[in-house]
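Protocol step 4 of 5: obtain the predicted structure for the target chain.
Materials: sequence only (see below). No template structures provided, no constraints applied. The aim of this step is simply to have a reference model before the mutagenesis design in step 5. Sequence pasted as it appears in the construct record:
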Amino acid sequence: MIWAVVAVVMVLLLGIGLGWWLNSDRSTTKISSELILTALHDRGFLVTQTYIFNEPLTIESTENEFWKDFLWGQEVEAHGVIEVNMGVDLAEIGENDIEIRDGKIYVTIPPAQLFNTRLIGQINVENKQGILKRLFDNDDGYNQALSELTKQAEEAAKNPDLLERANERAVEEIERLLGYVVGDKEIVVEIE
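Step 4 output (structure tokens):
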């Protein structure tokens, strides 16, 4: 009877040991540039900084001649809130931009660039038109104001300090992202 109990316990222990051995993760994932490249490309465009611009704008279509301006002149005053998103296109990173050496992973990324610009809310437009302009070509100035506000916000976002901030955030975000993939290796991210 004791031999039967010992045999059952031995079979159970052997089964548990064999099950653990078969299910244990004996293989370690080999970190390669392809693995890192796939992890980065899966993210697409990484938005690292969002800027909100709220600047007034005046557009004048005048010729500085009283009668022409009185009849055909136009002055548009606009005010709107524009959002500009900056970041890094991770699809631009190639295999040559990733290097693994000395226990470290070196990744070279492109500099931050404009991703998109959009209007938040509405544009307040005040349009002063000449008499004939109002009668024959009544343009409320909305499209022109939107175009100019967008252009003004994009130019403001290209300020070197704002670009530097977007680049710093890109480095931080990519280091954080790759930290989940490679875990124990040091990651060094550089900008082209």
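Step 4 remarks: The longest strand covers residues 45-61. The beta strands are 45-61, 74-89, 98-101, 104-109, 113-129, 186-191.
Proceed to step 5.
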